[in-house]
Amino acid sequence: DAGITQSPRHKVTETGTPVTLRCHQTENHRYMYWYRQDPGHGLRLIHYSYGVKDTDKGEVSDGYSVSRSKTEDFLLTLESATSSQTSVYFCAISDSLYNEQFFGPGTRLTVL
Amino acid sequence: AQSVTQLDSQVPVFEEAPVELRCNYSSSVSVYLFWYVQYPNQGLQLLLKYLSGSTLVKGINGFEAEFNKSQTSFHLRKPSVHISDTAEYFCAVTGNNDMRFGAGTRLTVKP
Q1: A41: closest CA among A94, A90, A105, A77?
Q2: Of A108, A47, A50, A43, the residue nearest A76 (C-alpha)
């Protein structure tokens, strides 16, 4: 299995609080991605990174920010969580933008 | 922007029967196509991919898919399914700095 970990694995928080999710890889892959998974929508890309400090927006980036200060870590921040951000969040990595992605185990976030 | 449509949200099938999960895409550029499988409470894992070359692609666990450029389809097939194939399957397309997943098809294999 590709070395990808996500923390925390489960989190319950309240509306309006900041939340940071962490993705850590040991594969030295250039590309890292954050997705959210919701019933009926499949996976939707939030942000992705193509190198240290290089990031770009995905399909559903509003309300989210990301940072990548090291190759191995990619952080997703919800500055002020809303109930609509209740979801399962997956991190993924790849060595190329157009090749297969390897997924982490997911983080289940509940915003009350 | 690209888009992916998985034509069936749920597919029930009996064990040892054949199955086809349908995927259509739209894109104005050359694309790369993937099928992923997700077992309960797990992340996604790659079943197979089409990057170039032969349009018939074979993947893990006996699955295969055929890229049809004229019909913009990438349907997934298996000639004989097992109980253990029960999972959710996602079609995905990448190209032109964009990547999209379909909404998923839940395959349920019944004994």
Answers
A1: A90
A2: A47
Query: Averaged over B71-79, what is the pLDDT?
Result: 96
Bridge partners, B99 (sequence order): B94
Q: Which amino acid is at B24?
A: N
> Average pLDDT over chain B, rounded to whole?
92
Of B43, B103, B104, nearest to A90 by CB-CB distance is: B43
Q: Chain A closest CA to B57's CA: distance in Å?
A: 14
The residue length of chain A stands at 112
What pLDDT does residue A99 have? Answer: 86
- Sequence length of chain B is 111
Q: Distance from first CA to last CA of chain A, Å, rounded?
A: 34
Distance CA A58, CA A62 (A): 9
Q: With contact defined as beta carbons under 8 Å apart, do B37 and B91 qualify?
A: no
- The closest of A56, A54, A57, A91 to A69, measured between CA atoms, is A54
Asked if the bond preceding B18 is cis, omega within 30° of 0, the reply is no
Residues of chain B in Cβ contact (below 8 Å) with chain A: 4, 6, 9, 32, 34, 36, 41-46, 49, 51, 90, 92, 94-95, 97, 99-104
| pLDDT at site A1 | 55
Mean pLDDT computed over every residue of chain A: 94
Residue A63 is given by DSSP the state T
